[in-house]
Specification:
The protein is α/β, with parallel strands linked by helices. It has 16 helices and 27 strands. The chain has two domains: 244 residues, Glutaconate Coenzyme A-transferase; 242 residues, Glutaconate Coenzyme A-transferase, CATH 3.40.1080. It is globular and about 90 Å long.
Length: 563
């Protein structure tokens, strides 16, 4: 008796959206930052005018989420981070929150919320507790409907719990799949596999379909075919984002996107979405040679070493000085300066340092040449590769000695704000979101850094707390540091410690030619000096240190980050 043929799951994007995405659904969007984002499905979702009741982003979302918000089809978003990495803030998300155009309800979250919410849905549970640390932030106050107190039935201290995030459909990208939906994800899996388990349905966009999945070169993860409802073949379908192992970010197009969306998304949508009936016409709307260009490696030379040390090089040396041999260190998203600091430390005094690259999950990744994006495929060439849920678990136990963190604002007690400036209901500047900063409280110690030093970034008191500092005195916020909390703050002008009375920031060292008086004029809180009354001067990078930084960072990604 002949074996019945198996039923392939191939479908055009329009049919998959029509059949599997009901209007008013909760939709999860995979990828991370500007990598492995299913942009072909995003564009088709907009063309189909499917209203999204709730958009669940990945822990660090980018242009896909921003474009959906700009289309006006999203009623609410569960967001830990929406930004464009080295291209700055997300224009449509900013405008929706700052101006209400289009109207958008924000369910303020952080990395642990999204991961634990998806885990609850995948396990069929109504909620999931969070690791301690979030209670030290403003997130439970900004989003009391989703963060709920939970008494430990086994007698431990109270916890916070979050609801299950069970999307009606998850939109995901993979590099290749067989016709029956089993897919291979090259590079980092991010939270995509978890989204597939949490969702009721999965539409999977792939670069290619092969008869059988066999061994692949490089690291990969698998989504089993029984979870996939529709398989959409979309070569170059992540553009302008990158697809790990296939093509890189189209930085020129992202710059076009930012410029065209500065006052609204309509012109970009008209040209690249509604004006293109399918992905073939989308490709035709791009400048000639675009798709071939992004399949080539980016240039690796920045044109030599500057005659004098740059502000960024000085900061990297100061950050590297905070590291200790044998420690485990984790970096946040878009962390070029700490990335180079870890590489410098491992090449000189800390060969046994373990560091985890934020977002991509690479453990001791290969740096040379450094990439602009923290989730770049370059950083998946590593000694080990963690998905985001595993990285969260390492922080929750905890097993992290040092956590590097930055933000829009840092105050005198080391509180860090990445959410927004001004009234959080209608901020004057909406930031990307807290990402994983709440987990800083779980680390042995926290090193803060800022790429600018002025009264808008170093403030008397932050407008919202993404990561808790040491005060202010009398605050009722819970601060349960398993380690030392913030210990150092590095800026282009100064290095602060938190040894002053009340654990306030104290000027430890000046950087470059900056004087204490100049630093005081650029700082939004009173300057505390060391007992001697005279701060130290940070030593200049040595020729050896500069040569190592140039070898690790030939493009100048970090070395030229600070003007």
């Amino acid at each position: 008796m002949p074996t019945p043929p198996r039923r392939p799951k191939l479908a055009p994007a329009s049919d998959a959206i029509e059949q599997l995405v009901p209007s008013g659904a909760m939709v999860a969007l995979g990828g991370m930052h500007l990598h492995n984002v299913p942009m072909a499905l995003v564009r088709q979702l907009i063309r189909s005018r499917r209203r999204i009741a709730t958009l669940v982003t990945s822990p660090s979302a980018s242009i896909g989420a921003d474009l959906l918000i700009g289309s006006g089809l999203v009623d609410a978003v569960v967001v830990a981070y929406i930004g464009l990495e080295h291209h700055g803030l997300a224009p449509n998300f900013r405008r929706a929150v700052e101006q209400g155009d289009p109207p958008l309800r924000v369910r303020e979250a952080e990395e642990a919320f999204i991961i634990q919410g998806l885990r609850a849905a995948a396990a069929g549970l109504p909620m999931m507790p969070l690791p301690r640390g979030v209670e030290g932030t403003d997130l439970p106050t900004l989003n009391p409907s989703d963060y709920r107190p939970l008494q430990d039935p086994f007698g431990g201290p109270p916890l916070l719990a979050v609801p299950a995030l069970r999307p009606s459909v998850a939109l995901l990208h993979a590099q290749r799949a067989d016709p029956f939906g089993t897919a291979e994800l090259l590079g980092s899996p991010f939270t995509d596999v978890l989204m597939a388990y949490a969702a009721d349905h999965v539409i999977l966009q792939v670069e290619e379909v092969v008869d059988h999945l066999g061994p692949s070169s490089g690291r990969s993860s698998t989504i089993p075919g029984f979870l996939v409802d529709a398989l959409v073949v979309a070569p170059m379908g992540c553009h302008p984002c990158a697809s790990h192992g296939r093509y890189r970010i189209d930085d020129d197009h992202v710059r076009t996107y930012v410029a065209q969306c500065a006052a609204g998304a309509q012109s970009y949508l008209a040209r690249f979405v509604d004006g293109c009936a399918d992905e073939g016409r989308y490709a035709s709307a791009l400048p000639a040679g675009t798709m071939d260009s992004v399949c080539q490696p980016a240039p690796t030379s920045a044109g030599g070493i500057d005659p004098r040390p740059t502000a960024a090089e000085r900061m990297v040396v100061a950050l590297a000085a905070e590291l200790r041999d044998g420690e485990v260190v984790i970096l946040g998203a878009n962390s070029a300066l700490p990335t180079l600091a870890c590489g410098l430390a491992r090449a000189t005094f800390a060969p046994n340092l373990w560091w985890i690259n934020g977002g991509g999950g690479g453990v001791n990744p290969t740096l040379a040449p450094m990439a602009h994006s923290s989730c770049d495929a370059q950083y998946t060439m590593a000694e080990a590769l963690l998905d985001l849920p595993a990285a969260l678990d390492l922080q929750g136990r905890p097993r992290i000695d040092l956590f590097f963190a930055g933000g829009l604002q840092v105050d005198a007690w080391g509180n860090c704000n990445l959410i927004g400036v001004g009234d959080q209901q209608r901020p004057t500047l909406r930031g990307p979101g807290s990402a994983g900063l709440s987990m800083a409280a779980r680390a042995g110690r926290v090193v803060l850094y800022l790429t600018r030093h002025d009264v808008r970034t170093l403030v008397a008191r932050v407008d919202a707390v993404s990561a808790a500092g040491h005060g202010p005195p009398g605050s009722t916020r819970v601060r349960e540091f398993l380690g030392g909390g913030p210990v150092t703050l590095v800026t282009p002008l100064a290095v602060f410690d938190f040894e002053a009375p009340g654990r306030r920031a104290r000027l430890h060292s000046t950087v470059g030619d900056a004087t204490a008086a100049e630093i005081a004029a650029c700082t939004g809180f009173p300057l505390h000096l060391p007992p001697s009354g005279v701060p130290a001067v940070l030593p200049e990078p040595t020729p050896q240190q500069r040569a190592i930084m140039a070898a690790l960072d030939p493009r100048g990604v970090a070395r030229h980050l600070v003007l």
